[in-house]
Request: fold
Amino acid sequence: MAAVKYSVIIPMYNEEAVIQETYRQLKKVMNSAGDPYELIFINDGSKDGSVDIIKDYYSWDQTVKLIDFSRNFGHQIAISAGMDYASGEAVIIIDADLQDPPSLILDMIGRWKEGYEVVYAKRIKRNGETIFKKWSAAMFYRILRASTDILIPVDTGDFRLMDRKVCDEMKQLSENNRFVRGLVSWVGFRQTAIEYERDERLAGETKYPLKKMIKLCLDGITSFSYKPLKLAGYLGAILSSLGFVYMIYVIYLALFTDSVIKGWSSLISIMLLFNGFVLIILGILGEYVGRIYDETKGRPLYIVRELQGLEKEKSKDKLDFQL
Reply:
C-alpha cells in the first residue's frame, strides 16, 4: 500500500445514528483528493453500536482504522490519540456529527498545498442551534480570547488540517487537561482560516452541553493564562482597601462624634459579600491546584482496548496503555 498522504481523525461517542453517512461522505471527499489516505475512527467509550459499524467497514476497507478506548476519556483526548497514530503528511480533524462539512477538506488541502501548515475552519453562522447555545458559544470564545496570553481564533472548533511537522510537535505536549485548538495556536507555524456556515446535526444529540462547555473553557483559560490569579489578587487588594477605609470611618465616628454606630444588617451583608469573594478566589486557586495535581500523577492520557489497522507505537514518550 502506498504511503499515506492524508490522515483523517474522527472522534466518535454514541454516533450510531450518523456514522454511516459520515463514512460515506468522507470516502467521497477523500477519494476525490486523489492521494492515499486513512480514516482513523476513535471510539471514545461509545455505548451504542458505533464501534461495530466501524469494525465492519475495517473488514473490507483498508483505509479504515480504529482506536477503541477502554472507556470514555473525552473528546480532546480522543483527538490526541488520533494524532498519536496518524501517519499522513497532512492530518485532518473532523467530528463525526457532520456539522462540519467534509467537502471543506478539499479547500483545506488546497491551502495546505499553498504552503500553510495549519488551516482551520472558522464559523460565520451556526445553523440549527438554540439562541442560548449560540450565545453561550460566543461568550465562550470571547472570554477565552480576553483571558489567554496567546491568540486563539474565535468561532473556531477543532475542525482543521495540520501539517506533519505540526502534528509531531503536538505529540510532544502531554498535559492531561487538553485544549487542542489552543495547543495548535501555541505551537505556531503558518496558519490561515477558511470561513463556512456550520450545519445542524444530521442525527443524534450534542456531545458538548453547557457543563462540558464550561469545563472546556476552564481548561483553555487555565492552560494558557494566569490572568484569573492576577485578577483574584487585584480583587483582594481592592476589597482590603475598602475594608480599611470603612474601618477608619467607624473609628472616626466612635472617637469624634456622638453618632450611634448602627448597621448590624449592613455589616452582615458586607461580611457575606466579602466571604463570597474569598470563596471565589479560593475556587480559582483550586482550579489551578487541581490541574497541577492531575499533571503530577503521571497517568496515561488514555487506555486502548483494541487497535484495528494500526500498530502500537513503541516510543518511550508514548502516553497510552493498551490492554
In short: The longest helix spans residues 264-297. Residues 314-322 have pLDDT under 50 and may be disordered.
